[in-house]
UniProtKB/TrEMBL annotation, chain A:
The keyword Iron applies. Residues 34-139 form the 2Fe-2S ferredoxin-type domain. GO terms for molecular function: 2 iron, 2 sulfur cluster binding; electron transfer activity; metal ion binding. One of its GO terms (cellular component) is mitochondrion. This is 2Fe-2S ferredoxin-type domain-containing protein. It holds the Pfam family Fer2.
TrEMBL record, chain B:
Its cofactor is FAD. The keyword NADP applies. InterPro entries: FAD/NAD-bd_sf (IPR036188), Ferredox_Rdtase (IPR055275). It comes from the Eukaryota. GO terms for molecular function: oxidoreductase activity. Keywords: FAD, Flavoprotein, NADP, Oxidoreductase. This is NADPH:adrenodoxin oxidoreductase, mitochondrial.
Amino acid sequence: MPIPRPCRAELLRRHFSGSAVTRHGDVTRPEPGTGIKLNFKDAKGQLIKTIEANEGDDILSLAHEHDIDLEGACEGSVACSTCHVIISPEHYDLLPEPEDDENDMLDMAFGLTDTSRLGCQVRLTRDLDGITATLPAATRNMFVDGKKPTHH
Amino acid sequence: MPPIKLAIIGGGPSSFYVASRLLSLLPRDGAQSSALKVHVYDRLWAPHGLVRYGVAPDHPEVKNCTHKFDQAAQDPRFRFFGNVQVDTQSSSIVPNAMALPLSSLLPHYTHLLFSTGGSVPILHPALPPSDHVVRALSLVHWYTRHPSCPPAPPLDKISHITLIGQGNVSLDVARMLLTSPSVLEKYDVPESVLDVLRRSAVKHVSIVGRRGPLQAAFTVKELREMMNLGDASMVPLDPALLKPPSDAPLTRQQTRTLQLLQKGSANKPGTTAKTWSLDFFRSPTGLVPPAQLMLTHTMLDSAARAVPTGATSRLDTDLVATSLGYRSDPAQTFYDPALGHLRTASGRIIDAAGRVYRNVYASGWAAMGARGVLASTMMDAYAVADTILADHFPGRVETMAVSPAAPHEFVETQTHMLPEDADLESVPREVAEGIEEGRVVEYGQWKAVDAEEVRRGEVRGKERERMDWNEARAFLEARTSKHA
Ligand SMILES: Cc1cc2nc3c(=O)[nH]c(=O)nc-3n(C[C@H](O)[C@H](O)[C@H](O)COP(=O)(O)OP(=O)(O)OC[C@H]3O[C@@H](n4cnc5c(N)ncnc54)[C@H](O)[C@@H]3O)c2cc1C
Ligand code: FES
């Protein structure tokens, strides 16, 4: 059962609208070695990083917590499709079916695949340990002089 | 490295996404990086383009993207100047905006980006604007209190409205007309608009398109919202229209559209006082006074174009609103009439021979044409930001996607020349004076108005109560004198 959306959107809204904005603090990090492992890969299939998450964390919040270049323009309200990720097939099958509203937004996502989901709607559970979220082809990740971008 | 001092004309989402990307990719403290300034000019006093003056009030979540825009605007390298219309003809000036010729702007900047959107509605040749034919965009401008200030539609006197065009803007307008004001009043809907909606006598909205359900431009999300309207029901469609074709495989979206249309609206037909219909395969040919719409029936040819079947019919209506897409402002310097928008390649402005104007770019609807949701506008904006950086730091940019090829040939002209170096702080004299006189709005002032709108909304139990420019100006003046 996903947590009710208005509530989550409200949380994010408060989180983002503070004046000293940081993207951290949305999710608490588990003790190393005890969390659910999640791999982020870029469009070419190269590993960006493997992170550890708690039960119930969603992929969009985790991406922001760990400085992965995944957008969430509507802040988890299922109204933008910018948080689109491609899930490893074996884990995709373990996820609850997307609701109608998520499917409606996926229709508009870039580079849609059979195992596409909205990152803001995928919540991690123990049995998803080892799941991979690949950023779709259109997402670019670029640095000038190898410098890591700061987040805005 | 010479600095990047970028002027962006237009302050819609495309502009802010480019700005945000540049500001985050070029860290302020980077020893290798060049200095960066981003100055955004908008002809409207308030920023965010169609996110403020387009997105329907009952889609508040869509507007969450402005939080990211606010973050970009907090960067000290960023400035916003509202009420400044750049590079345009006097005939298309919006009320209160100051006209700034391109020649006044250019000496102050090393880089120029057009993010001016596509703001000119395409008219239907058989339906020129009149008392009974309006542009759907003016209805949008009415319910968003756009500075162009169109009159309110006479909803208390009409019962039947026909929308021409089956895209999301049509469905937005239909939803606004068919949703109970008691639902809308908690959103960002101006009180003056709610007053008109409360007196509305509208009973039916027809949404006319010259092709079929599989070609309709609306998205499933918007169609589902229509199906779930609390007070209205859909007139059932001819089942023959909903049979999937045997010859061509359907896309995912087409399949889901057909399923939804087959299911019909949540309210069963005949159970509601208000109704709406999707009138497929109809093309208007004119209006018999006062407001009887003449329609040619159409079908698809082998290239999926609408062609007449020979049959015709008439539809009694009270008001026709056309929603057939947009083009960019033809008065703009790099406008290409054949395209309906500016001529670009990989975000760079080019001339008819494909030669690149050095350091001049375009993004968003101004570059791509007026199509696509915010997600596609954002992806395009990021690609343009990447192109700007790749051009500025040749060979020094790592990107994980394919970089745009370097331009082959440049246009060498004396006009439209940007200096290679510029005073990082300077702005055109007219703009500096406009700030002084309180005619030009900066981002901090917008944020003060924004907070005040939300506060005024809270008092009424709604998301916000919008101000127009006169109210905003009065509020800002009162605030300045208090602080003085
Ligand atoms: C009615 C409507 C509703 C929409 N609803 C949604 C939705 O719910 N969800 C969604 O994802 N997408 C929606 N869209 C699409 C979305 O708005 C666009 O993808 C996006 O706004 C395009 O961004 P842009 O910056 O290119 O253009 P715009 O948003 O149009 O911004 C252009 C800006 O440039 C300014 N400008 C123009 N000319 C000049 C000049 N000469 N000088 C100075 N400034 C100038 C304009 O005032 C404007 O602020 C909607 C579009 C419309 C028309
Ligand atoms: S963040 Fe907008 S749909 Fe997920």
